[in-house]
């Protein structure tokens, strides 16, 4: 696609940053992935799935939107990993053109209030997206909910909708584009993220872990990619190391006769083959590394070092 020659509207091309903000689990990653039409940020039913700041790049013939998907901001900061995630999200609020505040239309919590306070103090255009309205049985509840939020902070635009069902996302995207400054592309038009394929591979493994395990272990695990190599037949070999904090957690991830780890590997491999468009050979290992989530130095060595 040639973005300039297809622009028949004679409107100037626009390009800029949109930070996607909200507490954990409101649907930020789902929203960004749906607009991009591709999975850039991993999602799961569990809060705090996104740990890093991930750039999702949307390009059409009118604009390029650089979505900054952030970890959910939350008040419980007992561990280093939680402080890291809050830093990653809060630092995304400066130097962006638009703040997109995502809330769950069915629920309001203290963490929503915390993010709203941060948003109200930030500069830039502000857009409110009230998500998960597909789950609302009584749509009448929406208006008072929106009124309560907009009383506390001025929003330039408000959209109720559904990230999962794609409801109201076209209108949202058009408004976001109109708020961006004039300017040429920052990234080539075929880029969908600034993250490396290695990073995406680790994230896909982490997503399958989050989705397959119970409540506690996902937060105690992280993934390192030790090998990422194409052979001369174009087959990609990936070795992933899953780090956990305790031996019992290792046993759970491996599962009876290695069944769970096998399933996690199979699910991750299939998505990798689609994403990288080649045959993938994936090996997974599980190792105990006590206290990695509490230790700032260990976090840095695991790649949690951008902020
Ligand atoms: N019913 C419904 N579910 C949704 C919608 N959007 C997201 N979800 C679900 O909500 C859960 C959380 O979605 P995520 O996109 O991972 O949420 P997030 O805000 O990125 O979460 P963190 O990574 O914790 O910050 C997932 O199970 C999604 O499928 C929606 O519009 N409707």
Automatic annotation (TrEMBL):
Membrane topology: Peripheral membrane protein
Location in the cell: Cytoplasm; Cell membrane
Region spans: G2: 48-52
Record-annotated membrane-spanning stretches: none
Location of the KH type-2 domain: 205-290
Gene3D superfamilies linked to this entry: 3.30.300.20, P-loop containing nucleotide triphosphate hydrolases (3.40.50.300)
Predominant place of localization: cytoplasm
Region (G1): 22-29
Gene Ontology molecular-function annotations: GTP binding; GTPase activity; ribosomal small subunit binding; small ribosomal subunit rRNA binding
Function text: An essential GTPase that binds both GDP and GTP, with rapid nucleotide exchange. Plays a role in 16S rRNA processing and 30S ribosomal subunit biogenesis and possibly also in cell cycle regulation and energy metabolism.
UniProt record similarity statement: Belongs to the TRAFAC class TrmE-Era-EngA-EngB-Septin-like GTPase superfamily. Era GTPase family.
Subunit field text: Monomer.
Name by which UniProt lists this protein: GTPase Era
Species: Kangiella sediminilitoris
Gene (name only): era
């Amino acid at each position: 696609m040639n973005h300039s020659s297809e622009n028949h509207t004679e409107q100037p091309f626009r390009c800029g940053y949109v930070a996607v903000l909200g507490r954990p689990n409101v649907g930020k990653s789902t929203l960004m992935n749906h607009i991009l039409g591709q999975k850039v940020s991993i999602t799961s039913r569990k809060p705090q799935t996104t740990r890093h700041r991930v750039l999702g790049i949307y390009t059409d013939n009118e604009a390029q939107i650089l979505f900054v998907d952030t970890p959910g901001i939350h008040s419980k900061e007992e561990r280093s990993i939680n402080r890291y995630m809050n830093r990653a999200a809060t630092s995304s609020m400066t130097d962006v053109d638009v703040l997109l505040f995502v809330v769950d239309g069915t629920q309001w919590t203290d963490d929503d209030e915390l993010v709203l306070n941060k948003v109200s103090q930030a500069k830039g255009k502000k857009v409110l997206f009230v998500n998960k309205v597909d789950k609302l049985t009584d749509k009448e509840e929406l208006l008072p909910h929106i009124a309560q939020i907009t009383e506390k902070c001025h929003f330039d635009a408000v959209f109720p909708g559904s990230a999962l069902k794609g409801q109201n996302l076209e209108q949202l995207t058009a408004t976001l584009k109109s708020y961006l400054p004039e300017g040429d592309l920052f990234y080539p038009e075929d880029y969908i993220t600034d993250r490396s394929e290695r990073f995406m591979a680790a994230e896909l493994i982490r997503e399958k872990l989050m989705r397959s395990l119970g409540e506690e272990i996902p937060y105690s695990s992280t993934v390192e990619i030790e090998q990422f190599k194409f052979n001369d037949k174009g087959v990609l070999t990936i070795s992933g190391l899953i780090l956990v904090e305790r031996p019992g957690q290792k046993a759970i991830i491996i599962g009876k006769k290695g069944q769970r780890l096998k399933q996690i590997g199979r699910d991750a491999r299939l998505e990798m083959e689609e994403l990288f468009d080649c045959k993938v050979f994936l090996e997974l290992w599980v190792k105990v590394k006590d206290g990695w989530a509490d230790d700032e130095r260990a976090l840095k060595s695991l790649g949690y070092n951008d902020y």
